[in-house]
Amino acid sequence: MRFAALDRTYHDPEHKGWWHLEAGFGKCNFRDAPLFKAHEEAGAWVGQILMRKAA
């Protein structure tokens, strides 16, 4: 899985420095993953996804 920081060159200046899921696999394979203000928030989100029970 890979998270990348947004920069204002290619993204909304409002989201500069925020993080997004660039590539996810398995349970974290999301097309519309949320944006995160901090890398730690992204890590916490991954932990929540991985701890979910299979539906």
Description:
This protein has one helix at 39-51, and strands at 2-5, 19-23. The chain is built from 1 helix and 2 strands. The chain has 55 residues and is of the alpha+beta class. The protein has one domain (2-51). Strands 1-2 form a two-stranded antiparallel ribbon.
Outline of the structure:
The protein has 55 residues and is of the alpha+beta class.
What is the topological layout?
Elements lengths: L1 E4 L13 E5 L15 H13 L4
Antiparallel strand pairs: 1-2
The oligomerization state is single chain
Number of helices: 1
Q: What would the average pLDDT be, to the nearest integer?
A: 87
Beta fraction: 15-25%
Give me the count of strands. Answer: 2
- Largest sheet report: 2 strands, antiparallel
Q: Name the shape in a single word.
A: elongated
- How many domains? The number is 1
What gyration radius follows from the Cα positions, in whole Å? 12 Å
**Secondary-structure content class:** alpha+beta
Q: How would you write the strand order of the largest sheet?
A: 1-2
Helical percent range? Answer: 10-25%
How far is the first residue's CA from the last residue's CA?
A: 22 Å
- Uncertain runs with pLDDT below 50, 5 residues or more? none
Order of helices and strands: EEH
